[in-house]
Amino acid sequence: xxxxxxxxxxxxxxxxxxxxxxxxxxxxxxxxxxxxxxxxxxxxxxxxxxxxxxxxxxxxxxxxxxxxxxxxxxxxxxxxxxxxxxxxxxxxxxxxxxxxxxxxxxxxxxxxxxxxxxxxxxxxxxxxxxxxxxxxxxxxxxxxxxxxxxxxxxxxxxxxxxxxxxxxxxxxxxxxxxxxxxxxxxxxxxxxxxxxxxxxxxxxxxxxxxxxxxxxxxxxxxxxxxxxxxxxxxxxxxxxxxxxxxxxxxxxxxxxxxxxxxxxxxxxxxxxxxxxxxxxxxxxxxxxxxxxxxxxxxxxxxxxxxxxxxxxxxxxxxxxxxxxxxxxxxxxxxxxxxxxxxxxxxxxxxxxxxxxxxxxxxxxxxxxxxxxxxxxxxxxxxxxxxxxxxxxxxxxxxxxxxxxxxxxxxxxxxxxxxxxxxxxxxxxxxxxxxxxxxxxxxxxxxxxxxxxxxxxxxxxxxxxxxxxxxxxxxxxxxxxxxxxxxxxxxxxxxxxxxxxxxxxxxxxxxxxxxxxxxxxxxxxxx
Amino acid sequence: xxxxxxxxxxxxxxxxxxxxxxxxxxxxxxxxxxxxxxxxxxxxxxxxxxxxxxxxxxxxxxxxxxxxxxxxxxxxxxxxxxxxxxxxxxxxxxxxxxxxxxxxxxxxxxxxxxxxxxxxxxxxxxxxxxxxxxxxxxxxxxxxxxxxxxxxxxxxxxxxxxxxxxxxxxxxxxxxxxxxxxxxxxxxxxxxxxxxxxxxxxxxxxxxxxxxxxxxxxxxxxxxxxxxxxxxxxxxxxxxxxxxxxxxxxxxxxxxxxxxxxxxxxxxxxxxxxxxxxxxxxxxxxxxxxxxxxxxxxxxxxxxxxxxxxxxxxxxxxxxxxxxxxxxxxxxxxxxxxxxxxxxxxxxxxxxxx
Lengths: 526, 354
Description:
The structure holds two protein chains of two kinds.
Chain A: H1 2-6, E1 10-11, E2 14-15, E3 18-22, E4 25-26, H2 28-45, E5 51-57, H3 59-70, H4 76-90, E6 98-106, E7 111-119, H5 124-143, H6 145-149, H7 154-170, H8 173-187, H9 219-226, H10 231-243, H11 253-271, H12 276-290, H13 298-315, H14 321-325, H15 328-333, H16 341-351, H17 354-361, H18 364-378, H19 392-402, H20 408-419, E8 426-427, E9 438-442, H21 447-451, H22 456-470, H23 475-488, E10 492-497, E11 503-508, E12 513-516
Chain B: H1 8-18, H2 26-33, E1 38-43, E2 81-86, H3 91-97, H4 110-120, H5 126-140, H6 142-146, E3 172-179, H7 188-205, E4 210-217, E5 221-224, H8 244-255, E6 275-282, H9 291-300, E7 306-312, H10 318-325, E8 331-336, H11 342-353
Parallel strand pairs in B: 3-4, 3-6, 6-7, 7-8
Antiparallel strand pairs in B: 1-2, 4-5
């Protein structure tokens, strides 16, 4: 152990400092372990990250950090989140083992550290496992293109909290909370796919003045710019808008969790070489997270399987155009030692998002192996551990895709939507705003990106199936429309469709809802 | 341990109480009275967002009140409930759930409400009084024996402490009305100076919550697009000049009637809840001075916080005299030459603003 601590960890010639702290004290045992794991990750797996401080917290502190990360302002929502987290930890239900927090500057070491929170009630093996897992997350945070673009500055958030409390003191808690609730409703209308809308042609002439001049996908920003607010209202809305930029992180959830679990699994393999007992416990922990097919665990499940699958295929050379031309029998015996699994995975992690990841790597063979695995597991005794947690509809969907009853792309969408509510895309159409009402239209044009060209019959079937998933007619939407209308002080109209795929227009004047079948429904064409 | 979250938990508990989500049984109340904290689970609250298949439920057409809340999606099993502790401190709020609301007099508690106010006047704080009564009842063991019963004595009565509060969100509308007939062409710079300085004065006064509306008129009036504000004082148009259409337009803007406009915004001038200022710049030429105009001004001026009438190099003083003779305190009328010197501008502003 002493020898380990003398060795420096180097990434690209730069030293990486790692420590585990308990309050203000350094925990020597965990620091040593953390360094050992980091050495494995850096030297054998090729990961890279910055300085890390593992902070070991009790239940209440941990719950508070989680609440603050989810809803950084001290609103009632943060209070609810804290109580919920404390509840879960108390009864060890749906436990959070770790949380990767913000970067902060250590004035003593004069270095920037990333804070990682660990629950002190975890067992020793769990903590080792968690540390390995966290290095996976950190690698993505430091290397993924999208993750790098997300600005999460803890000082900024602390300043926002101060301002929020000041507003409450000056005005009234109820007034401020009320506007906060409205801001939360608006947060569902952020543009989290800005790269989808970039390549639009600009017409320089020959167009009459209209407002807005282009389709506006960021309805939150549009509201900020065009509704007249009092200064404090505007500030609060801007603060929530800024905080919500973190939501972009949802787009790499499967990558994040899948890769971290994959790395954790690799470390368990390493440990097994000298300490089979700990390795077994770690492996059990991994399975209890990544082997449960429930909506909450789907990112772990899918990501872990997929990375394992990719590693195997790229190690054995089972990929590429020529391989896909082979017959089933030939594919089975095909073998070409390439050992490119790990490098392929690191490449994926660098620049992909979930959508690209699932659509380019989860092929029918992968789904086939999933179905096979689930079928086998269902009859095994070990399943009683996680019994009853297999949602049948996911299995049925995968099977339907196998029998070509369901478009595999629809399956992929559905899986992605299960993992995280991406929020529907809604936009203000070009030239639609005249001051008397706000028109919103649902956008489904992004579906075309992944399906390629379809025949008319297929297209019809596709639209019918998607209409059942993507209809916006429900209670939450209606309440949101009421809130939007109160904010804008004019009626708000939403063009969507009902579950049969027919166009449906919902209009709210702030208190009442009107339905009609005029309007064009959602936008399918790009 | 320092709590970064502050009182977020308390706020959440208050929200539960307000929305009647927490229901206590008689056993719970007995436990609370014994000094125990009772743990109850309640549904998780979420702010609605536009979503696919939210709550897996089709909306019904007449969900009357706007901000209905609902359970979280049932997908995550036990996650859709949250457990909160209830203690004696919050019993008062619990009582509201039993229909004993003191803040809003309803049918059930009218008798109680009258009983409390008739004798003791409005300065009494009912909530605190009830709290004090409960404290006394619990201390003496009366509550445990008889349950909740209203029995207020002199020692329980608490009084309101009146606190003065500043209202910071007052806002204003400033309407700039300008005669754009040909004869006004040389006065553009002077008009812009005066209007700009008044605007500056208002922005200081109202912390930048000033909305500015531009009206141009000859014998026909329309609202000018504020996006092109730079061009407003250069506007020139032919035709005769009359004031009545212009003042008519202001009335329509206030009443929410349709009016001629080049602006993309159609917002009503809300004279009831915010301050409205009107500046009229003209050379005094007015072809329409009937009794109708006088009647309209009599209706309009009380709605305004202040009206400024600026006449430059007068052709005719008829309207100036009429406005001055009305004797309204909130109307100030000034005649001036077309002189942008410091002395003249100061003189005009002093007269207008005081």
